[in-house]
Amino acid sequence: MTEPAPSRLERLALRMTALAERWLPDALPFALVGTLLVAGLALGLQGMAPGKALKSWGDGVWSLAPFSLQMAMVVIGGTVVATAPAVARWVDRLARLPTTPRQATVLCAVASMVSSWFNWGFGLLFAAVLARALARRVQGLDYRTVAATTLLGLGTVWAQGLSGSAALQMATPGMLAPAIRTIAAGKGPGGAELVPGGIISLEHTIFLWQSLAAVAVEIVVVAALVAAITPLGPRARTAADLGVDLSEPSDHSDDSADRPQVPGQWLEHQAWLGRLIGALGLAAVLQQLWQAEHMAAAITLNTVNLTLLSLGFWLHQTPARLARAFARATPATWGLLLQFPLYGGIAALITDSKLSERVADWLTAAATPLTYPPLVAAYSAILGVFVPSGGSKWVIEAPYVLAAAHRHRVHLGWMVAVYDLGEAVANLVQPFWMLPVLGLLGLRARDVMGVTWTVALVVAPLVLVLVTVLGATLGYPL
Fold this sequence. Notes:
The protein is mainly alpha-helical. Helices cover 67% and strands 0% of the residues. The protein has one domain (27-243, 269-471). It is built from 22 helices and no strands. The longest helix is centred in the C-terminal third of the chain and has 27 residues, at 445-471. The N and C termini lie far apart (57 Å). The model is unreliable at 251-256 (pLDDT under 50).
């Protein structure tokens, strides 16, 4: 049976992939060129003194150090949980469902988006483990395409979900500077706050029916797009064609590895110890959820990481197995640790030079209440290429986005959602957040970015339409 001729979308994806494979550098040069570009704009456009710019960049390099560790732990914890034997067996059963390459890529794309809505770190790593399992089982599966689908949750719906940084920051007291809260609160007749305390709860951001509708539309459209661009037959390149080894290391392949060789190793191989610590960690998370004013206030990076670490202890059982799982997961974080300091410096230059304020003023002057949401979404996506951190970038954008939302009398919670929808698109264009899974998948950024760019060409205009049409159904201020 002959394979059908490629559709126009598949031909576009194949051309984009060939272009990326030939011309695209790896992720690090993006950060280096971005540093030079932003420095040039700070010096040339904003007139920042060279000495001040150098100090700003130098001080900013380590400004994201705590956040960098949190992100590294998200990657490690997500990998440890996703590769635990019990989870791996469940993933393997899931990988048996599709029988064709097209079904496999759609399954992985939907799994990536749905799981990323709950937590982007787990969704990213879970989808990568699923992609490897699918590649082992489905004959003729294009490994570049299924690998690229693991990134689609981070490039579409993650920030509209339970781990969305901006929404959590706005809903949680103490997570933003008082000055930002004052701007968010606004002033009504008689000086009363329009948004008490500047707190915007999750019911006015990610749980708006408009936000949920946008998530549903993105999942359906992206799933259909992935089905259309999946290469079939001779056009596909399997993992074997790319020289990727899909064999899985096993903690149980060598029984001697799970037995103490000397008395001092006895505790390392006791399952009760790992399960006890795992249970204590989960109990601590439940306590935080119970004592919080509302659940959203307890859903932070710290609680997410404690949950992943505790599950790692419970699922791997013995300290020795958990240590081996951590050792295998740690190499996936080197790109984050190398590049986050560079993005910290970029963020400092953008803020200290008032470059972000100038761009925001341009947006405000050019916008109307109807056009303000799509302009902010586009701005958020562009800035996300230079500062690939939803939470840190929101601190830069929030003062201007929220102040202008008051001036244009636009729903403030929807502007947080608009920021999130636009910010996610940058992850389809910028390779930074691909680094954690590329090591696990055995690929380079150039191998998958042709596919993610193709998805971005469809998702970007879709987001602009969604934020405009759905935003028109909301009132002011909330």
